[in-house]
Amino acid sequence: MSGETVKLLRSDAPFPPWIDHGFTTRVGGVSTGPFETLNLAWRTGDDPANVVENHRRAAASLGYDSEGLAAVRQVHGARVVVVRSAAQARAAREEKADGIVLAPDRVPAALAAAVRVADCCPVLLAAIDRPAAAALHCGWRSLVGGVVEAGVAALREAAGASPERLAAAIGPCIGPEAFEVGEEVAAAFAREAGAGVVVRRGGGVRPRVDLAAAARSLLVRAGVSPEAIRLVRRCTFSEPAVFFSHRRDGAPSGRQAGVIVLKPGGPPT
What's the Rg (C-alpha) of the chain? Predict the structure, then answer.
């Protein structure tokens, strides 16, 4: 796969024209071995020079500067950091969190945020009528722990964006046929996101969870309009040629990303 063009997936979420977004795949980078080829994770054992080049390629495909990308040290929690400048975006890389809100005072150049995933669910949010956006890393612990609610609340507080004026894109993640969980995890999902996100297939079979549906349910509960939420229904576990999957491949493994880009030319802050 090395040398191929970066393969991006986009949703048809009703984002405003000053927002771009994409979900990367494992296609189009320079990494080798278990990281083949577009691995975007810095701390999984890949050659750092390859990761830098992979980020450069992903950034070029979406029109932002990879040196100023806002990313965090993801810890499967519910903490969200707010970024208001390129300098803060760079500093955020040392923060332990699972959400990033972009709410700059001005947008002289494209500002981007990314969350890295390898079965977890990337959720991208944008305000419809102001220059503000967010990226959320939604694994099962983050989802039942409140990262969606925290992300919507942080976006609302930082940018004055009401939930009903947000749009959301939910990216590829492990599908319900592959995401087998224990009874305690299933109960937590049913409690927080509704019983409908837990899938059962006959007696004696362990429950499975629809991670993307859980993220959608929690977005709606946080006030986001159902009509403004779009899902990219692709299973990371079942498409090894397209996606990294930690559950399928174990460690080491690469990571793809959900990226949202705030471009100049939007409404005034």
Answer: 17
The tens digit of pLDDT for each residue in 155-168 reads 999 999 899 999 99
Which residues lie closer than 8 Å to 206 by C-beta, 6 or more apart? 180, 181, 182, 183
Per the listing, tokens 């959400």 go with 99
pLDDT in tens, 222-238: 999 999 999 999 999 99
Question: Do the bridges between strand 166-170 and strand 229-231 make them parallel or antiparallel, or are there none, so unpaired?
Answer: parallel
3-state secondary structure of 23: strand
**pTM of full prediction above 0.90:** yes
Which residues touch 264 (CB under 8 Å, ≥6 apart)? 18, 107, 108, 109, 110
Which of 31, 22, 37, 2 lies closest to 69 in space, CA to CA?
22
In this structure, are residues 223 and 197 in contact, taking their beta carbons and an 8 Å threshold? no
Separation in Å, CA 246 to CA 108, 173, 256: 38, 11, 11
Nearest to 211 by CA among 189, 192, 227: 189
Strand partners, 230: 169
E strand residue ranges, 80-237 = 80-83, 99-102, 111-117, 121-127, 133-138, 166-170, 198-199, 208-209, 229-231
CA–CA separation, 72 and 8 (whole Å): 21
Q: How many Å apart are CA 48 and CA 236, to the nearest integer?
A: 24
Give ∠ CA 101-138-260 in degrees, rounded to 5: 40
